[in-house]
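Q: Predict the assembly, please.
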Amino acid sequence: MLRRAIVLAVVAIVSVAAVARLGAQTSWPTADSYVNADTDTANWILPARSYTGNRYLAHSDITATNVATLKKAWATNIDARGPLETSPIVWHETMYVTSSHNDVYALDAKTGSVKWHYAYKPHVIAFSANRGVAIGNGKVYEATLDGKLIALDATTGKTVWSVVGPHDTTNTFYTMQPVPYKNMLLLGASNGDWGGIGYLTAFDAGTGKRIWEWKTIPGPGEPGHDSWSGDSWKRGGAAIWSGVAIDPASNTLYADLGNPQPDFLGTIRKGANLYSNSMVALDISGDTPKLKWYRQFIPHDTHDWDPAMPPVLFTGTVAGASRSLVAAGDKGGNFWVLDAGTGTVVYHIAVSTQKGQNTEPSRAGNIACPNTNGGVEFNGGSYMPETNAFYVPSVDQCGMWTSPGTATYVSGQFYLGGAFPKLVGPSTGYMSAVDIGTGKFLWRKHLAFPQIGGALSLASGIVFTGGVNGDFTAYDAKTGAVLWHHPTSQTIQAPPGSYSLNGKQYIVVASGPAGINFADPRFAKGAPTLEGTYTHPTAATITAFTLP
Amino acid sequence: MRTIALRLTCVLALAWMAPAQAAPDDHAGAVAALADVHAAIAEIVRIEDGYAVGHGAYIRAAHRAMNALVGRRDDGYAASYGDPGDGVGTLGHLDKMLDKEGSSLWTPAIEGAKANVLAAAENLQSALGQKEMEEYEADLTRTLANLALVVGRPSQDGVLGGLAGALGTTVLAVPLGATSVSGCTDPSRTPAYGIVAQRLVYVALPRSAASAAIPDELSIGRVVVQGDTVLLYTRGAASATAGCHRVSRLERTRDVARARPRQVAVAAPEPPYTAAQAHAGAAVYKKSCIQCHGADLQGTAGPAVAGKEFLTTAKGNKWTLSDLRTTIFQNMPFSNPGSLTPTQYADVTAFLLASNCYPVGTKPFPQADSGALAAVKLGPIPGAKATNAKLGTCAVR
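A: Predicted assembly structure:
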């Protein structure tokens, strides 16, 4: 009898475990969840909330009238070896974030306490950055600075599999947040200043196997190849650094491709250098992507002015008519609105100072604006239908450019054909609201520091963004008035996000040390912020805010 | 090269534990390096002896010779002109031989050969820039003089004399899989190579193979036939075997050393810098670099710049001191490149070299790159004593 009872108990335990496992298996986002991610206010499951790439919430408890009472709910310090650019993924009360050196954290979204921590020590080629993880099927996916795509068990943080993605890890790595789409993880290769060629790769989310790859520079015999002189296309760049947008209805993927190489020397790569500095629309319904259209923003760029901002798909009202549009922003200080179906330019407006843009860097040096790290940066902007306006942060800097007239490829080193420019004059920033109805500014704020944190807009009439001096600010979407601010005392380079728990809405943002592009000399002395001053931080923090 | 028959015969022999055997691929590397040199010489001789009309043929010949010497991994390689060599290039083969830990009897010869290949490449580069035929030919003549030294020859009793010398008189003569035996006694089997203290004493062949071709490099002083064995004694055999009564002990010592490789610093050019520069550079680093590269130099927002992580990358990517200098002087600090003075740049480079445990010297790190820095390859330093063993870095005071 005793023996039988034991057997029964064992059976019972096994059954409970099986049920629990079954529960875990079905509790992950489905393909439909991703397609409808913009309607889910509890979770945030794609890098920029939805496949449109638009960080916008149609329903928000935080409003222009109550945002002044927004308070810090929790703050959790994570690995501070570099700047944070992570876009938090939130699913069923757990938040997944990354550090610049590829550590992954699962946090309790309510308290910020660490559920698990995956520590990693990647080989860093030039700078450290990671823009976050993807989740699905019980796994957390991260792409690393040494070119690995790693799948972790979402419950334990232990490695399930790991594959090497790039063809040459001495000049190619990953900073992008993987984008789950159908059975795939989409990932752009980062190599735009190191002498590689860009490509977008689709990996099987189950196994990490390569499904397809689309090269960003046309090879011999392909249309556009003649836009490169000689063999210059072989190290031509056009990396995919940040995000992509997808229209699931038409299986169209929109990606912005980076600058041509060598960055500052155009004489050895005569021509327009396609598809560098372009937005491309790809049909990804078949076995391999097909190019639908491209729009090159800066042909034959010699200043590293790539379109850093991830594409944002939206339906806006242009001259009274509703149109399907896609927005882009480049480091040359341009903000672009294109027709999403054809790629034709609807609007173009300068959001940073522009000067000397048509002169190639010379041996003696010449000044051009923006600086290499100027204009619109990697975390981009947001469209709000309620105001029919696009909110875009930018950097205002000028630089002195030089090129010795030669370029030498050394694996693992910058392939620039010159030097990164020296900062000339002040380093400031703008927060701009562009009226999509007219293509003119609705309002602009000139700020003392570069604005690179990305924007989140709420239908209730608020836009959140952060500055490199640590100010995290909520603006009135109609007027640009500051409704609320919080000094994080750390540089904000990451985009804000939102989620809800038990009916309570949270706003979350990552902050930390300044990245190598934004180490501002003013920090050493204590730079002014909206409250007090800011000095070089030694910590990196994820902070969540909520109403009392 | 007329070594094929001999080597074919030799590889048939059963290999057995033999004293003083070169690493198996070194022989092949030296032979291939020499073949590339001969290919380069042939290109030069052909164009000098011929009557080509027009600039193109001369440029082509210089490029082809260059390709054979430097190999396709070098920046000087111009694939479109074709390569009369094997693609790896003399330099590629020699670097591989020199990249190993420890040194052999033949190491100085290979280093000398490399120095002469680099000189030859410089003269070829100069030729490519000449407008006058006379100057072009003068450069090629200098190139040929350099290459003659690279080829070299076996001397009476030493290891001197470039690749051929090393192949003809040292353990480097032994191909992969061949049998080598103590040169102090007659061979118990054939074919075999008789070796004493890494020097080649004889090549022993069965009589049936005696009519086979023998290596060009082999400098035969004496031929002895003993029963079914033909012994080809090298010219240096007498001096090599003079110490045979001491040899057994020496050989044992060497074998022990080989089993646990001794940390011998390869006599490659060392980075120049002074203690005063490194000291001054520490302050520059603290002010302008520490924010992105970290107090422990392992990188925060930027990459590691010292220790195992950095040196392993440097070696993997074949960085030279010139590459490092360009990155620091031209592109750093990343947020404001070129903003330091030349003195500060030299000082901070010295600080990094010291932090990487490179030995301090009396010659300062130069503010201008004369070209000599390109000859200094960066990578893990054998025998270096890191003050931080985990990171592989050295503290700078």
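Confidence is low (pLDDT under 50) at residues 1-26 of chain A. Residues 62 and 460 of chain A are 7 Å apart (CA to CA).
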